[in-house]
Design a protein that fits this description.
By secondary structure, the protein is of the alpha+beta class. It has a single domain (4-82, 93-114), classed as Jelly Rolls. The protein contains 2 helices and 9 strands. It has helices spanning 98-112, 118-121, and strands at residues 4-9, 12-18, 23-25, 32-37, 40-44, 51-53, 58-60, 67-71, 74-80. The strands form 2 sheets. It has a 5-stranded antiparallel β-sheet with strand order 1-2-9-4-7, with helices on one face. The protein has a 4-stranded antiparallel β-sheet with strand order 3-8-5-6, with no helix packed on it. The longest helix is centred in the C-terminal third of the chain and has 15 residues, at 98-112.
């Protein structure tokens, strides 16, 4: 099953990942990847070792080159979005209201090369 955007919150996008379907991330140097569930396997260009994240662990992407993230089995991860997209349109609970959703999803798709899950496209 291809990676998909599950939800978007202020400054982050959450993705569901599956084994043998890597998520391609480019131009994300300095952004944090958070493992939310399962085991996330990360391979980063010019990084000496692959990284395996477990729930609660974080990896900082070392450069703007290609990064591949894949679950071992099934998992969820969150990745920080660029600060330029962390602006208005948020409710008090950190979730994005309809006004801010379009810009947030554009940022997520650009960073992750994904289309939003149907629940976010409403």
């Amino acid at each position: 099953m291809k990676p998909r955007i599950v939800t978007a919150r202020a400054g982050q996008v959450e993705c569901e990942l599956h084994e043998n379907f890597p998520l391609r991330v480019v131009g994300a140097g300095g952004r944090r990847v958070h493992c939310l569930s399962g085991v996330i396997w990360i391979t980063a260009y010019d990084h000496p070792d692959d990284v395996f994240l477990r729930p609660g662990e974080v990896f900082v992407i070392p450069n703007d080159r290609l990064v591949l993230a894949e679950a071992v089995g099934r998992g969820r991860m969150a990745i920080d979005l660029p600060a330029a997209f962390d602006r208005g349109g948020y409710r008090g609970d950190g979730r994005v209201d309809r006004r801010g959703m379009a810009g947030l999803l554009r940022a997520a798709r650009a960073l992750l090369g994904l289309r939003p899950a149907p629940m976010l496209a409403e």
